[in-house]
Amino acid sequence: MKVLVIGGCGFIGSHIVDSLQAAGAAVRVLDRRPEAFREQLPDVEYNFGDFSDPFQLLEALEGVDAVMHCASTTVPSTSNVDPVADITGNLISTVRLLKLLRQMNIKKLVYLSSGGTVYGIPQVDPVSEDHPQNPISSYGIVKSAIEKYIYMEEQLHGLNAVVLRASNPYGPRQGHTGIQGIIGTYLWKLSRGENLEVWGDGSVVRDFIYVKDMADICVAALHSEKRGCFNAGAGEGASVNEIVEAVRVATGIDFQPTYKASRAYDVPRIVLDIDRAKDAFGWAPKVSLVEGVAESWKWVQSQSRAAR
Ligand SMILES: NC(=O)c1ccc[n+]([C@@H]2O[C@H](COP(=O)([O-])OP(=O)(O)OC[C@H]3O[C@@H](n4cnc5c(N)ncnc54)[C@H](O)[C@@H]3O)[C@@H](O)[C@H]2O)c1
């Protein structure tokens, strides 16, 4: 099987590439830029270009059996600044991708959506796939709209697609821009000797999934005949204060975070119900938060050493 990974040089995409190779697939990547934290892999075919460019996309799709779409030009916190750019860069480009898949008779697609944003403010705990979708960011609205176009393509033209609504992936190769991913941000800050900040009282709860578990569900979905939308998370919540403690244990550094005013857009708690994905794919997350944070810290330290 030859798989095109769109966004394969990103944080999650790079781990999907690893898991695909481990499963014996041939891999081509389409990305705007090389990986930030490692050299190009010898057995991966890299196409550097923009997936919103139909010609570059067409070239990248030539000869592949399946597509894993894990590119996004926005994150939740930036998407509201320019929703038009969000719609153009993500929704329109993905609708164009769907048309090309149909024209090229490529039937299998796995798409990374977002369990943290498509549902909006949760009405139940944990949140299952049947929860109403009322996103409160452009990012979530665009993800939700893409899901619906994928569904339309399945119904009308026989696409065989899986949408994975990822919770909060963390782990090695998570960047340190500080705009997404509290665990990565905390570890990078500690490696630079900086103090950590907590918005609010630290009681906000999120569902954190180790990135290798996330990559594994992507590959399981790719090889499955199942279709539809599936939550992809740990199925358990951890508060920011629990993250702070896990980081303290993993790093062995004693620090006192600075508590700041809470942010209006942080919903108090969101945890995903992952039973549907477990049943469908015979998959389950394997890495505990403590183990995952420890692995992530080892990686951050190796990067800091290499930079010195
Ligand atoms: N990281 C998270 O917390 C999280 C949570 C839920 C869902 N997701 C989704 O998972 C997917 C992967 O996220 P990530 O954290 O690995 O992001 P990332 O930014 O690390 O990786 C995305 C990759 O896509 C590439 N890319 C973006 N726009 C492109 C374009 N127009 N053409 C070609 N390449 C392009 C980027 O260069 C980057 O390498 C995204 O769809 C994201 O919305 C991420």
Structure, explained:
The protein has 2 domains: 2-169 and 208-232, NAD(P)-binding Rossmann-like Domain (Rossmann fold); 172-206 and 237-268 and 287-307, UDP-galactose 4-epimerase, domain 1, CATH 3.90.25. The strands form 4 sheets. Strands 3-2-1-4-5-6-11 form a 7-stranded parallel beta sheet, sandwiched between helices. It has a two-stranded parallel ribbon with strand order 7-10. A two-stranded parallel sheet has the order 8-13. Helices cover 41% and strands 18% of the residues. Helix 1 packs across helix 7 and helix 8 (240-251) crosses helix 10 (289-307). It is built from 10 helices and 13 strands. The radius of gyration is 19 Å and the shape is globular. By secondary structure, it is α/β, with parallel strands linked by helices.
Taking strands numbered 1, 2, ... along the chain, how are they ordered across the largest sheet?
3-2-1-4-5-6-11
Q: Structural class of the secondary structure composition?
A: alpha/beta
* Radius of gyration using CA atoms only: 19 Å
Helix content: 40-55%
Low-confidence regions: none
| CATH fold title of the largest domain | Rossmann fold
β-sheet strand percentage: 15-25%
CATH superfamily of the largest domain: NAD(P)-binding Rossmann-like Domain
How many strands, what sense, and barrel or not for the largest sheet? Answer: 7 strands, parallel
Q: What does the overall shape look like?
A: globular
Task: Measure the end-to-end span.
Answer: 41 Å
Q: Treating each run of at least 4 consecutive H or I residues as one helix, how many helices?
A: 10
CATH class of the largest domain: Alpha Beta
Question: What's the structural domain tally?
Answer: 2
Q: Bound compounds, please? A: nicotinamide-adenine-dinucleotide
Mean pLDDT: 95
